[in-house]
Amino acid sequence: MSDARPTYPSISEVLHASPGAKALTRLSAVDTVRARIRLSIESGLLSPGTKLPHLEDIAVGLEVSKATARRALEQLVEEDVLVRKRGRYGGTFVAENLPEETGDATAAYHSAASAIRLLIDQRSLMESTIMLAAAQHASEADCHKLEQLTKQSERSRTWYEHHAYDVKFHRHCANMSQLQETDAYLKTYHSLHKYFVPYPMEKIQPRLDEHRELIEAFRTNDSLKAVEITQAHVGVLREEMFIGLTKPQE
Protein backbone atom coordinates (compact mmCIF):
# COMPACT_ATOMS: atom_id res chain seq x y z
CA MET A 1 0.00 0.00 0.00
CA SER A 2 1.49 3.31 -1.06
CA ASP A 3 1.84 6.06 1.51
CA ALA A 4 2.52 8.73 -1.10
CA ARG A 5 0.63 11.91 -0.40
CA PRO A 6 -1.83 13.03 -3.09
CA THR A 7 -0.86 16.06 -5.14
CA TYR A 8 -3.25 18.90 -5.78
CA PRO A 9 -3.23 21.44 -8.61
CA SER A 10 -2.25 25.00 -7.86
CA ILE A 11 -4.76 27.86 -7.91
CA SER A 12 -3.35 28.89 -11.29
CA GLU A 13 -3.79 25.40 -12.74
CA VAL A 14 -7.38 25.19 -11.53
CA LEU A 15 -8.24 28.55 -13.02
CA HIS A 16 -6.61 27.83 -16.35
CA ALA A 17 -8.49 24.54 -16.59
CA SER A 18 -11.65 26.64 -16.91
CA PRO A 19 -12.95 26.83 -20.51
CA GLY A 20 -11.44 29.79 -22.34
CA ALA A 21 -9.07 30.84 -19.55
CA LYS A 22 -5.98 29.54 -21.34
CA ALA A 23 -6.60 31.97 -24.20
CA LEU A 24 -5.83 34.85 -21.86
CA THR A 25 -2.42 33.47 -20.93
CA ARG A 26 -1.41 33.59 -24.60
CA LEU A 27 -2.00 37.34 -24.88
CA SER A 28 0.93 39.72 -24.76
CA ALA A 29 1.06 42.38 -22.04
CA VAL A 30 0.23 45.02 -24.66
CA ASP A 31 -2.82 43.06 -25.81
CA THR A 32 -4.13 42.73 -22.25
CA VAL A 33 -4.03 46.53 -21.83
CA ARG A 34 -5.68 47.04 -25.23
CA ALA A 35 -8.41 44.56 -24.34
CA ARG A 36 -9.10 46.02 -20.89
CA ILE A 37 -9.49 49.56 -22.20
CA ARG A 38 -11.62 48.37 -25.11
CA LEU A 39 -13.82 46.27 -22.78
CA SER A 40 -14.38 49.35 -20.64
CA ILE A 41 -15.55 51.24 -23.73
CA GLU A 42 -17.72 48.36 -24.99
CA SER A 43 -19.39 48.08 -21.58
CA GLY A 44 -20.28 51.76 -21.56
CA LEU A 45 -17.93 52.61 -18.69
CA LEU A 46 -15.77 54.90 -20.85
CA SER A 47 -18.09 56.95 -23.03
CA PRO A 48 -17.19 58.55 -26.39
CA GLY A 49 -15.15 61.71 -25.92
CA THR A 50 -13.80 60.69 -22.51
CA LYS A 51 -10.24 61.89 -21.96
CA LEU A 52 -7.83 59.22 -20.74
CA PRO A 53 -5.50 60.07 -17.82
CA HIS A 54 -1.75 60.45 -17.97
CA LEU A 55 0.31 57.49 -19.14
CA GLU A 56 1.83 57.01 -15.68
CA ASP A 57 -1.61 56.64 -14.07
CA ILE A 58 -2.69 54.08 -16.68
CA ALA A 59 0.47 52.03 -16.14
CA VAL A 60 0.06 52.01 -12.34
CA GLY A 61 -3.68 51.29 -12.47
CA LEU A 62 -3.33 48.38 -14.90
CA GLU A 63 -0.15 47.16 -13.18
CA VAL A 64 2.06 47.28 -16.28
CA SER A 65 5.16 49.20 -17.33
CA LYS A 66 4.92 52.64 -18.91
CA ALA A 67 6.37 51.22 -22.12
CA THR A 68 3.62 48.57 -22.28
CA ALA A 69 0.89 51.14 -21.61
CA ARG A 70 2.34 53.50 -24.24
CA ARG A 71 2.45 50.83 -26.93
CA ALA A 72 -1.10 49.72 -26.12
CA LEU A 73 -2.41 53.28 -26.46
CA GLU A 74 -0.53 53.72 -29.73
CA GLN A 75 -2.17 50.58 -31.13
CA LEU A 76 -5.62 51.71 -30.00
CA VAL A 77 -5.06 55.03 -31.77
CA GLU A 78 -3.98 53.18 -34.91
CA GLU A 79 -7.17 51.09 -34.67
CA ASP A 80 -9.31 54.28 -34.30
CA VAL A 81 -10.52 53.19 -30.86
CA LEU A 82 -8.79 56.26 -29.39
CA VAL A 83 -7.98 59.62 -30.94
CA ARG A 84 -5.17 62.03 -30.11
CA LYS A 85 -5.77 65.79 -30.08
CA ARG A 86 -3.11 68.45 -29.91
CA GLY A 87 -3.13 71.86 -28.30
CA ARG A 88 -3.96 73.28 -24.89
CA TYR A 89 -6.95 70.98 -24.42
CA GLY A 90 -5.40 68.05 -26.18
CA GLY A 91 -4.79 64.51 -25.02
CA THR A 92 -5.99 61.00 -25.77
CA PHE A 93 -9.76 60.53 -26.04
CA VAL A 94 -12.25 57.73 -26.65
CA ALA A 95 -13.35 57.85 -30.30
CA GLU A 96 -16.97 58.77 -31.10
CA ASN A 97 -17.53 55.51 -32.97
CA LEU A 98 -16.02 52.24 -31.79
CA PRO A 99 -14.73 50.15 -34.71
CA GLU A 100 -15.08 46.39 -34.72
CA GLU A 101 -12.38 44.36 -32.97
CA THR A 102 -9.73 43.22 -35.45
CA GLY A 103 -8.02 40.70 -33.16
CA ASP A 104 -9.06 38.21 -30.52
CA ALA A 105 -7.91 39.98 -27.34
CA THR A 106 -11.35 40.96 -26.02
CA ALA A 107 -12.75 37.56 -27.05
CA ALA A 108 -10.11 35.94 -24.84
CA TYR A 109 -11.40 37.91 -21.86
CA HIS A 110 -15.02 37.03 -22.58
CA SER A 111 -14.11 33.35 -22.93
CA ALA A 112 -12.61 33.44 -19.43
CA ALA A 113 -15.97 34.29 -17.80
CA SER A 114 -16.14 31.02 -15.84
CA ALA A 115 -12.60 31.55 -14.50
CA ILE A 116 -13.54 35.07 -13.42
CA ARG A 117 -16.62 33.84 -11.55
CA LEU A 118 -14.51 31.19 -9.84
CA LEU A 119 -12.02 33.85 -8.75
CA ILE A 120 -14.82 36.01 -7.36
CA ASP A 121 -16.14 33.04 -5.37
CA GLN A 122 -12.67 32.26 -4.05
CA ARG A 123 -12.03 35.89 -3.11
CA SER A 124 -15.39 36.12 -1.32
CA LEU A 125 -14.67 33.06 0.81
CA MET A 126 -11.07 33.96 1.56
CA GLU A 127 -11.62 37.67 2.13
CA SER A 128 -14.51 36.97 4.53
CA THR A 129 -12.11 34.98 6.70
CA ILE A 130 -9.39 37.61 6.37
CA MET A 131 -11.72 40.44 7.43
CA LEU A 132 -13.17 38.41 10.31
CA ALA A 133 -9.67 37.92 11.72
CA ALA A 134 -8.67 41.50 10.90
CA ALA A 135 -11.62 42.79 12.95
CA GLN A 136 -10.49 40.72 15.93
CA HIS A 137 -6.99 42.25 15.83
CA ALA A 138 -7.78 45.78 14.62
CA SER A 139 -6.20 48.68 16.49
CA GLU A 140 -6.97 52.39 16.30
CA ALA A 141 -3.71 52.85 14.39
CA ASP A 142 -4.93 50.34 11.80
CA CYS A 143 -8.24 52.16 11.46
CA HIS A 144 -6.45 55.49 11.02
CA LYS A 145 -4.23 53.99 8.29
CA LEU A 146 -7.26 52.61 6.44
CA GLU A 147 -9.09 55.94 6.75
CA GLN A 148 -6.14 57.75 5.15
CA LEU A 149 -6.07 55.29 2.25
CA THR A 150 -9.82 55.71 1.74
CA LYS A 151 -9.45 59.50 1.67
CA GLN A 152 -6.67 59.19 -0.91
CA SER A 153 -8.94 57.00 -3.03
CA GLU A 154 -11.71 59.60 -2.79
CA ARG A 155 -9.32 62.35 -3.86
CA SER A 156 -8.16 60.33 -6.87
CA ARG A 157 -9.03 61.88 -10.24
CA THR A 158 -9.25 58.56 -12.06
CA TRP A 159 -9.91 54.85 -11.46
CA TYR A 160 -6.27 54.16 -12.33
CA GLU A 161 -5.05 56.37 -9.47
CA HIS A 162 -7.69 55.03 -7.06
CA HIS A 163 -6.75 51.42 -7.81
CA ALA A 164 -3.28 51.79 -6.29
CA TYR A 165 -4.77 52.98 -2.96
CA ASP A 166 -7.44 50.27 -3.07
CA VAL A 167 -4.73 47.61 -3.31
CA LYS A 168 -2.92 49.12 -0.31
CA PHE A 169 -6.18 49.10 1.66
CA HIS A 170 -6.82 45.40 1.09
CA ARG A 171 -3.20 44.41 1.66
CA HIS A 172 -3.20 46.23 4.99
CA CYS A 173 -6.39 44.40 6.01
CA ALA A 174 -4.72 41.12 5.09
CA ASN A 175 -1.71 41.93 7.26
CA MET A 176 -4.03 42.87 10.13
CA SER A 177 -5.55 39.38 10.07
CA GLN A 178 -2.23 37.77 11.16
CA LEU A 179 -3.31 34.59 9.34
CA GLN A 180 -0.67 32.33 7.80
CA GLU A 181 -2.90 31.90 4.74
CA THR A 182 -2.53 35.59 3.80
CA ASP A 183 -0.23 34.87 0.84
CA ALA A 184 -2.76 32.46 -0.69
CA TYR A 185 -5.50 35.09 -0.32
CA LEU A 186 -3.36 37.82 -1.90
CA LYS A 187 -2.54 35.56 -4.85
CA THR A 188 -6.24 35.12 -5.55
CA TYR A 189 -6.89 38.83 -4.93
CA HIS A 190 -4.26 39.89 -7.45
CA SER A 191 -5.21 37.17 -9.96
CA LEU A 192 -8.64 38.78 -10.25
CA HIS A 193 -7.07 42.17 -10.99
CA LYS A 194 -5.96 41.14 -14.47
CA TYR A 195 -9.66 41.13 -15.40
CA PHE A 196 -10.47 44.57 -13.98
CA VAL A 197 -11.30 47.32 -16.48
CA PRO A 198 -11.21 51.12 -15.97
CA TYR A 199 -14.28 52.57 -14.24
CA PRO A 200 -15.77 56.07 -13.93
CA MET A 201 -14.96 57.43 -10.48
CA GLU A 202 -18.61 58.15 -9.68
CA LYS A 203 -19.27 54.40 -9.79
CA ILE A 204 -16.46 53.77 -7.29
CA GLN A 205 -17.98 55.82 -4.43
CA PRO A 206 -20.35 53.06 -3.18
CA ARG A 207 -17.35 50.74 -2.79
CA LEU A 208 -15.51 53.43 -0.79
CA ASP A 209 -18.58 53.83 1.41
CA GLU A 210 -18.26 50.10 2.15
CA HIS A 211 -14.60 50.66 3.07
CA ARG A 212 -15.75 53.22 5.65
CA GLU A 213 -18.36 50.81 7.01
CA LEU A 214 -15.66 48.16 7.29
CA ILE A 215 -13.40 50.54 9.21
CA GLU A 216 -16.23 51.19 11.71
CA ALA A 217 -16.67 47.43 12.14
CA PHE A 218 -12.93 47.17 12.79
CA ARG A 219 -13.08 49.99 15.30
CA THR A 220 -15.64 48.08 17.39
CA ASN A 221 -14.01 44.69 16.69
CA ASP A 222 -17.30 43.52 15.16
CA SER A 223 -16.17 40.45 13.20
CA LEU A 224 -19.63 39.39 11.99
CA LYS A 225 -20.37 42.87 10.65
CA ALA A 226 -17.01 42.89 8.88
CA VAL A 227 -17.90 39.60 7.15
CA GLU A 228 -21.34 40.91 6.14
CA ILE A 229 -19.82 44.03 4.57
CA THR A 230 -17.11 42.02 2.84
CA GLN A 231 -19.53 39.58 1.23
CA ALA A 232 -21.55 42.48 -0.19
CA HIS A 233 -18.35 44.30 -1.25
CA VAL A 234 -16.97 41.32 -3.20
CA GLY A 235 -20.32 39.92 -4.33
CA VAL A 236 -21.17 43.02 -6.34
CA LEU A 237 -18.26 42.20 -8.67
CA ARG A 238 -20.51 39.59 -10.31
CA GLU A 239 -22.63 42.44 -11.67
CA GLU A 240 -20.07 45.25 -11.92
CA MET A 241 -17.22 43.50 -13.72
CA PHE A 242 -17.49 43.40 -17.51
CA ILE A 243 -18.93 39.86 -17.42
CA GLY A 244 -22.04 41.23 -15.72
CA LEU A 245 -22.50 44.43 -17.67
CA THR A 246 -24.92 44.68 -20.56
CA LYS A 247 -23.39 45.97 -23.76
CA PRO A 248 -24.83 49.45 -24.46
CA GLN A 249 -27.50 49.61 -27.14
CA GLU A 250 -26.52 51.06 -30.49
TrEMBL record:
The record's keywords, sorted A to Z, are:
DNA-binding, Transcription, Transcription regulation
PROSITE patterns referenced in this protein's UniProt entry, alphabetically? HTH_GNTR
Presence of the UniProt keyword Transcription in the record:
yes
Q: Does the keyword DNA-binding apply?
A: yes
Leader peptide range in chain numbering: none
Looking up Pfam families in the UniProt record yields: FCD (PF07729), GntR (PF00392)
Query: Where does the record place the HTH gntR-type domain?
Result: 27-97
Q: Which domain of life is it from?
A: Bacteria
* Protein's recorded name: HTH gntR-type domain-containing protein
Q: Which organism is it from?
A: Yaniella flava
Phylogenetic lineage: Bacteria, Bacillati, Actinomycetota, Actinomycetes, Micrococcales
